[in-house]
Write a sequence for this structure.
């Protein structure tokens, strides 16, 4: 699938002076609750009002959503407040009911994105419609699976696309409910710069007091919007109580967030940036030339080893190099994690070069 400018035209059409905000309760609980929260969000930066109607829960026996009746409540929200509406769909029936009730934005949840069968069923049900469809990342950190789901929806003729970064499940305990693994979202953005990228700090953190920091990181990384679960009495919510914020807190969050510009046309800024970028280009070229020289030496070592019938992998020598590089890196302000990543890649490339030499006739 190619990146296309038109993917983001639905978002540009809103002409917002700030990132897109999707907010509302984790679950629609009662008509009163849905309407109360919507009215409290009416005069805010919120464009889309979200509410889960069908809730996929980890274990059975928990509140699993009010079902189709909740769609009528969302229709009332739109009539009374003018907010657009959004809900999660997980099968053909959900899509058909959401379309019948004229829901404006549908999203595919992380547990559905993992299943190409479910995504295809949803894609087939969406064919011929022009809804905005957002695809959450799969629960496992698999960029190809995420892109595959977006492709299935796009192949059904949907061009009003977006993705939601809600973090990834891990077995290890961490301070997050779902690990952000920011690099995966950044990789998605690099592949498809015109597919709006929305961050979901509620599901990443699982805790309301961490939502601001994660939202700020997302905006610093140029995300296009935020989806934040909002409830008038969060602690009494029927699902995900700990991660929901009140409408007032949501408004405060948006007051406090630093919204960075994607770019700046100011001539001085541009000139300074260009000079710095020229320096980076020179350094990058040096890096490549240095790497090339290093691999030529590896080729010669490979030839020597071939002649003497010696194994390529020399763990002792390699560990010595790594130890030295970590110390040198530290002096240059480079983290151990970074040095390990870079030198692991260098080692692999060196081995690949030597293998080529050794295998050559
Ligand atoms: O020193 C060697 O024996 C090499 O083959 C070079 C080199 C390296 O690229 O630095 C590559 C493979 C070995 O595992 C150790 C080091």
């Amino acid at each position: 699938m190619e990146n296309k400018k038109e993917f983001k035209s639905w978002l540009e059409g809103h002409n917002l002076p700030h990132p897109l905000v999707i907010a509302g309760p984790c679950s629609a609980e009662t008509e009163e609750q849905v309407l109360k929260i919507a009215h409290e969000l009416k005069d805010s930066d919120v464009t889309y009002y979200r509410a889960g109607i069908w809730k996929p829960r980890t274990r059975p026996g928990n509140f699993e959503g009010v079902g189709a009746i909740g769609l009528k409540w969302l229709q009332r929200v739109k009539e009374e407040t003018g907010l657009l509406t959004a809900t999660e769909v997980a099968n053909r029936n959900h899509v058909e009911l959401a379309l019948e009730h004229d829901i404006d934005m549908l999203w595919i949840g992380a547990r559905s994105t993992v299943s190409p069968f479910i995504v295809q069923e949803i894609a087939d049900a969406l064919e011929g419609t022009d809804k905005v469809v957002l695809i959450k990342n799969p629960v496992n950190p698999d960029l190809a699976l995420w892109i595959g789901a977006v492709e299935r929806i796009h192949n059904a003729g949907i061009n009003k696309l977006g993705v939601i970064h809600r973090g990834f499940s891990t077995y290890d305990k961490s301070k997050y409910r779902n690990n952000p693994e920011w690099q995966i979202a950044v990789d998605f953005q690099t592949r498809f710069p015109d597919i709006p990228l929305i961050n979901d700090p509620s599901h990443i953190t699982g805790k309301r007091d961490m939502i601001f920091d994660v939202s700020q990181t997302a905006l610093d990384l140029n995300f296009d919007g935020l989806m934040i679960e909002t409830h008038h009495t969060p602690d009494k919510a029927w699902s995900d109580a700990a991660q929901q914020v009140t409408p007032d807190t949501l408004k405060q969050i948006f007051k406090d967030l630093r919204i960075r510009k994607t770019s700046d046309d100011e001539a001085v800024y541009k000139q300074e940036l260009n000079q710095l970028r020229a320096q980076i280009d020179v350094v990058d070229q040096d890096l490549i030339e240095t790497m090339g020289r290093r691999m030529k030496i590896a080729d010669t070592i490979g030839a020597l080893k071939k002649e003497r019938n010696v194994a390529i992998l020399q763990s002792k020598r390699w560990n010595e190099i790594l130890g030295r590089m970590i110390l040198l890196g530290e002096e240059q302000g480079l983290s151990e994690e970074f040095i390990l990543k870079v030198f692991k890649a260098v080692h692999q490339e060196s081995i690949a070069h030597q293998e080529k030499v050794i295998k050559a006739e």
The pocket of prephenic acid is lined by residues 298, 301, 312-314, 317-318, 321, 347, 350-351, 354 (CB under 6 Å). The mean pLDDT is 95. The longest strand covers residues 84-89. The two ends are 41 Å apart (CA to CA).
